[in-house]
Amino acid sequence: MNYENLLITTENNIATITINRPTKLNALNVATISDLNKAFKTLGKNDEIRAIILTGSGEKAFVAGADISEFAHFSIEEGTQLAAEGQEKLFDFIENLKTPVIAAVNGFALGGGLELAMACHFRVASENAKMGLPEVSLGVIPGYGGTQRLPQLIGKGRAMEMIMTAGMVTAQDAYRTGLVNHVVPEAELLDYCISVANKIIKNSPYAIGKAIKAVNANFKEGKNGYEAEIKAFGKCFGTEDFKEGTTAFLEKRKAVFTGK
Ligand code: COA
What we know:
- By secondary structure, this protein is of the alpha/beta class.
- The protein folds into 2 domains: 6-200, 2-enoyl-CoA Hydratase, Chain A, domain 1, CATH 3.90.226; 205-250.
- The protein is 47% helix and 17% strand.
- It contains 11 helices and 10 strands.
- A 6-stranded mixed beta sheet has the order 1-2-3-5-7-10, with helices on both faces. Strands 4-6-8-9 form a 4-stranded mixed beta sheet.
- Helix 1 (30-45) runs parallel beside helix 3 (76-95), helix 4 (112-119) crosses helix 5 and helix 5 crosses helix 6 (156-165).
- The longest helix is centred in the first third of the chain and has 20 residues, at 76-95.
- The two termini are 26 Å apart.
- It binds coenzyme A.
């Protein structure tokens, strides 16, 4: 499939999605959100794809935010719809995808860009990356899940400060607070993410999908994460991956998982 604003490559069961609007610092306009939605849907259904890496094109930005030019004139209703649609189509969709998604944060990740990185299952940043939620400087608040996911990742007090000051943090600050898991030199970012993805794809895709679901359950209002974990745990026992994983261990060989 061809996308107006994305480049997608696939190698050894790992797909890399590159958001490709470098002249606009990869800002998320409606067309890009729609492309991303289609790409994640398509890749998520493909059993051959065991991990997805999301990054931005150019040397400057992962994503510099939602495209301000598209919403500057919006009414209350349009603003509400923008957030609701975006959250459902893209941000929640990525968070709940059973295929692991790693954000390779290669520069500015601001506003909707940081929210996009936070919707991924975890983040790796290059040394030059800068992250922030500058929305209040525009007279609005984060609308793609930022007020929820940032406190989950770095704690309420730190999130309050970042949101209220609208300031940016460096990659090292983000690492210190748990916003990103690793910081690596710019030139090594994608290879590093691929090496982490290679560790992931050795494991049972079925079990990984269920683990994502169980971890996420704790962060959804009205859901009991422990109960969700019990259900997901039990389901694993009916799978070929579980039989293969335990048999391989007992036979002292490497497991070959199919995701079934
Ligand atoms: N929406 C729309 N366009 C954006 C954008 C966004 N969020 N972020 C950057 N751009 C565009 C700029 O308008 C500019 O386009 P132009 O060349 O047609 O004028 C181009 O991307 C390059 O950005 P520029 O501001 O010239 O680069 P810079 O290096 O001087 O500054 C930033 C980089 C990231 C500090 C600055 O672009 C910025 O503050 N962006 C907005 C960040 C933001 O508030 N995001 C949250 C939105 S809710």
